[in-house]
Amino acid sequence: MLGAPGRSKKIAYSSIFAVAYSIARLFPISPYVGLNSTLTFGEIFSPLAGMLFGPYVGVVSVTLGTFLAFIRGRPPVFDGLDFLPGATAALIAGFCFTGKRNVSLLVPLIVMALFTIDPLSMSLISVGPISVPFLWMHLLSVLTMGVTWVLVGRKKIQVSSLLFVGATFFLSTMSAHVAGGVMFENVLVRINGVLPSNLLSYWRGIFYLYPLERTFFTIAGTAVTFPILRTISRWTGKV
Predict the structure, then answer these.
(1) Contact (Cβ atoms closer than 8 angstroms) between residue 182 and residue 118
(2) Distance (Å, rounded) from C-alpha 82 to C-alpha 88?
(3) CATH of domain 7-105+122-236
(4) pTM higher than 0.70 for the full model?
(5) Distance between CA atoms of residues 62 and 15, nearest Å
(6) How do residues 216-231 score in pLDDT, each as one tens digit?
């Protein structure tokens, strides 16, 4: 986490980050499936907010950046609640980088449970003769982070290592993805009545697409984030 010497500097740095994050949200990467909107470069930077500023200031920074993006011309998709996936990513990354081991694993599982128990969700997808959990990659991210915490506890790796940053980013981006699914069901479907012609086919399509999407975000995010954290570590002597 960023070793800022005082609250005022931390607020200043997080505000600057919010501005940069708002700009990143203006640049599309891929379309939302079934929606007239896009995923943006903001997906790559939201976990970094938590890594730098901790879980709570990171959430505030991402939230502020999301609303600044609205002002800059990016239209809201989820009735102004568009900050929630990015805020979830920042929250999880912040818990990881402040050493909150149990909470960093528990919160993603809670979000997954909210998605799974929703009757609008598909918990299992038939792939040939077997049924695969829709959230298989999300569960893998929790397992990966759990193993990483064990390695940290045994002093096999450090929090500043590439493996820890990558595992944190993997868990954060998968948590953001499932939080987006919860928002889709409750904001767009239940509140606004935006219902795909075949909801089951919609989730089946997402099931085959999201692993590629989230693998890209994990690799790209880690590639961007790790050098930034290393540079800040040299400047401040602390991450």
Answers:
(1) yes
(2) 11
(3) 1.10.1760
(4) yes
(5) 9
(6) 999 999 999 999 999 9
